[in-house]
Give the backbone structure.
Amino acid sequence: MTFEVAPLEDDRPKHFCGVVGMALEGDAVPHLKKALRIIQHRGQESAGIAVSTGGAISYVRGMGLVHEVLTGRQYNALAGNRGIGHVRYSTSGSSCAENCQPITVTTKEGDLALAHNGDIVNAGSIRDKLQSEGWAFLTSSDSEIIVRMLATELSNSPDPVRAIKTVMRTLEGAYSITMMLDGRVFGFRDPFGFRPLCLGRLPGGYALASESAVFDVLKGEFIRDVLPGEIVEISSSGATSTRTPAAPHCAHCMFEWVYFARPDAVIEGREVYQVRTNIGHILAKEQPVEADVVVPVPDSGRAHALGFAEGSGIPYAEGFMKNRYIERTFILPDQSQRDEGVLLKLNPIRSTVAGKRVVIVDDSIVRGTTMLKIVQMTRRAGAKEVHVRIGCPPVIAPCFYGVDMKTREQFAALNRTPKQIAELITADSVGYISQAGLVRALGIPESELCLACVNGEYPTRIAGEKMRFQRTLEV
Ligand code: AMP
């Protein structure tokens, strides 16, 4: 039997991933594994850790969930009181073992391992330059480019902080990185602070992680976010910081709060759960509807729906059973597989919706696949009316900083009014939170956020796209 494989519009790996780093008095291996399990939601395609006791690095990485990869003879043989780890987000375009992280190489200054979350927007031109200088690349990932640049810098001068600083001056885009060089553990975050990275204390040492829940679960304590442009080195007894210039305005990705991070994560001082319930409250005021029940799309729409119920006074109830063992439908390569996936994943709870005017609340609509299927199944289960409320403004522009939404033509909201979107997904009405409402829910000034996917204004220069704060066209 042969299968037609849908063409992939972008075969580069996307880096909406999770990273950790640790320096402890005792063995870090089991703690690194636990930390990665806590941020497993940030990536289910591959996982890996690299550890050291001060010199050579040993590692285990591979395709699969953390508990599937970090097991067995090789894992059991790992030992080291310092280490870094990575979970990789699964996308249709880049499902291959060669892109697993941490990436490990040997440099003039010792073994280097690197774990990266984000997307480098000038990776292509850097790669071309490095290739013309004679470098060969093993993978298609941006992260390998960073490793090669660091190795080159280290061959000029042994100081890792200086090497990181120099590399940061060339990189454009999103990166929250943990790195280990000759047993020293570093974390650094791009000058815009697109992706989260935080610093915490653990029993017997210090750690870096994409999300603060890691410190809670490992009985440690969250200290603070790594600042945009900051380089932090951790040891078992402390952390040292080197500042490089932050961008004049940060660009924290709003989608971290809207969808990606755990509800118990605190990013830039804002708890994700609280932001989502704020969104629900504001959405209820901005897009009111007469209805009998508010129903969340599990799990991502739950806190938004709770806020909507509180804000509107309409009772909240669980309306869908979610099968947790079905793969992520968002990333399936073709439309019929995505349609089928949603049906396998969700089934309505009849008593909640039958004979009622239902408001379904979810965090976002990208292509509209999920919501069309959900509206249809809600009607089949006997709902009288189906209204949809969304906790993110209409997605109309691609993300170049790591979120897997790149194909403009597929966006349900592009060139459609809410009425036309309602027709597309067969709902009685659709209402989105406004950009101003979202900014208010976050409590972070608009100038410090990346809202490019909803307003098409990018914080960094991208060919053919409008730049944030740009008021006149370049000539
Ligand atoms: P779609 O079906 O294409 O409209 O996607 C929207 C659904 O997928 C919503 O339920 C979101 O929670 C979820 N979603 C949105 N963005 C992403 C993303 N980048 N990766 C995975 N899931 C997403």
Remarks:
- Residues 1-13 have pLDDT under 50 and may be disordered.
- Residues 259, 297, 300, 328, 330, 362-371, 403-405 surround adenosine monophosphate (CB under 6 Å).
- DSSP finds 16 helices and 25 strands in the chain.
- The CA atoms of residues 36 and 406 lie 27 Å apart.
